[in-house]
Amino acid sequence: MKITANDPNRKTWLTVSDNSDFPIQNIPFGVFLTRDDIITIGTRIGDFAIDLGALHQLGYFSEIPLTDDIFLQDTLNDFIADGRKTWRLVRNRIAEIFDEKNSSLKENMAHKDKIIFSMDEIEMQLPVDVGDYTDFYASKEHATNVGSLFRDPENALLPNWLHIPIGYHGRSSSIIPSGTPIRRPIGQSRPSEGSDTPNFGPSRLLDFELEMAFITTDINHLGNSIAIDDAKSYIFGLVLFNDWSARDIQGWEYAPLGPFLGKSFASTISPWIVTLDALKPFKVKGPKQDPKPLPYLKQSGKNSYDIHLQAFIQPEGKEETLVSHSNFKYMYWTMIQQLTHHTSNGCNIRAGDMMGSGTISGPTKDSYGSMLELTWRGQNPIKLNDGSERKFIDDGDTIIMRGYCANNKVRIGFGNCTGKVLPALK
Ligand code: CA
Question: Largest alpha-carbon pair distance within the chain?
Fold first, then answer.
């Protein structure tokens, strides 16, 4: 099916600024509370939130086979479970409804009043009920940096890393939408020198991880796996993802089973899921893979995406400072390799499952995706615009992540992924 929604020449009758993350070519999906406190599934064009439940009830999707309540839900899980054909039909139809040449909704004031909200009238919610969340470790630069810092620079990459998209099962209950504050976690860390007893208290090395996460539809029954060439049709879309990490808790607890409480206290996502379809014009090849992956992970063509990623620190009451500029294309293992690997043992993947990319660090020092790497575990503090310095994240700091793709015709962005750090509970 042609993705007519991606037509770069299409213009909308809504007012959209040139540098908006949400031109009519984006059409992401999210869930929001309206000014009347009704929860609904929606999309966004410019700074307008569009109520898809209302659009559907008023008959604007009559030519698409959808159940009556598909958009009158508090999560996108059922819509995502309907599969790629439905996602495409709906995106294409939304593009048509808001096309400047189409006056049916444009000239219906009563309908517009029910369907279109300004962004400041609504409150974004979590877009999906995340059943399972897996976090990968897919950037070679990040794995090399962390291996050097936590273990041994000579053998920074463990021997399995170049063969397996390494991952672990994360905690879905603490995935929160952008704008939700987080509490500095309390936990155990390594004993101080001369002591046998671990420390227990507020984390002193609180960090962000600049990641993206993809959301899947139902893929396979338990015991079955998928072929890599089919994997992309099961990926609904992507969000920005801040995998908050307490390095002191992590460093003490991670052997031998991996991340646990150093990660599970919170993970923040941007609230609009940008579809893989919308990102299609920005496909690129990922890094060359050497040695060659095993046959079940062998991919061909372009399977990565040129998505600029940024992380900012904003101290309380001050301006923000850009501290990292990375790109999704630096990921060594692609999403389809991660997904294929995930099902290769017969583990079933369901609609609404979320897969974190792992911290996306680039090759240069200003493209590292965590404070751990940017300051080299605190050895090289970062100077912020207000003159203060950071080794890790202070109480009161807001971490802001942004991501966008751009070519000479269209810019597709993700909006903000923000979270403010509150002091630990006493
Ligand atoms: Ca992570």
Answer: 76
Measured in Å, residue 316 CA sits from the centre of ligand 1 at 25
- pLDDT (tens digit, 9 = 90+) per residue, 10-55? 999 999 999 999 999 999 999 999 988 999 999 999 999 999 999 9
pLDDT in tens, 122-146: 999 999 999 999 999 999 999 999 9
43 and 71 together in one domain: yes
Angle at 204 between CA 200 and CA 208, to 5 degrees: 125
What spacing in Å lies between the alpha carbon of 304 and ligand 1's midpoint? 19
Q: What is the DSSP letter of 367?
A: G
Residues marked active site are found at 142
Calpha distance 198→187 (Å, rounded): 10
Domain end: 124, 153, 171, which one?
A: 124
The answer to whether the CB of 231 falls within 8 A of the CB of 336 is yes
Q: Are residues 319 and 379 in the same domain?
A: yes
CA of 361 to the centre of ligand 1 (A): 11
